[in-house]
């Protein structure tokens, strides 16, 4: 239980470290959120994807550090790797799609 609480805390910090700079970038380049509107769903997704990715990777890192290796549960590792790759692709596509909005380009959707 202690590991889960610390993992959630670490994942929340990682998600915040990813989403907050993009939020500030959009705030500065659009002269505040009042003029362009605040896309809550976008920033929730930008926080949630790194959060979930970190929660997914933390057990793998813990197993590697403890010396258990990846051969102990190869099916679980493959599933975690596939899910992690999917999350990274979704996150990369989302950021590249919304990059003009962060830079203050008008009418970006």
Q: What descriptive keywords fit this protein?
A:
single chain, mainly alpha
Describe the SSE topology:
Elements: H1 2-29, H2 33-36, H3 40-66, H4 74-102
What can you tell me about this protein's structure?
The model has no long low-confidence stretch (mean pLDDT 84). The protein has 4 helices and no strands. α1 packs antiparallel against α3 and α3 runs antiparallel to α4. It has one domain. The chain starts with a helix and ends in a 7-residue tail after the last helix. It is elongated. By secondary structure, it is mainly α. Helices cover 81% and strands 0% of the residues.
| Helicity range | over 70%
Radius of gyration: 17 Å
**Number of E strands:** 0
Mean pLDDT: 84
Q: Calculate the terminal CA-CA distance, rounded to whole Å.
A: 42 Å
Largest sheet: none
Gross morphology is elongated
- Number of distinct helices: 4
Give the count of structural domains.
Answer: 1
Which structural class do the helices and strands define? Answer: mainly alpha
SSE string, helices as H and strands as E:
HHHH
In short:
The chain is an all-alpha fold.
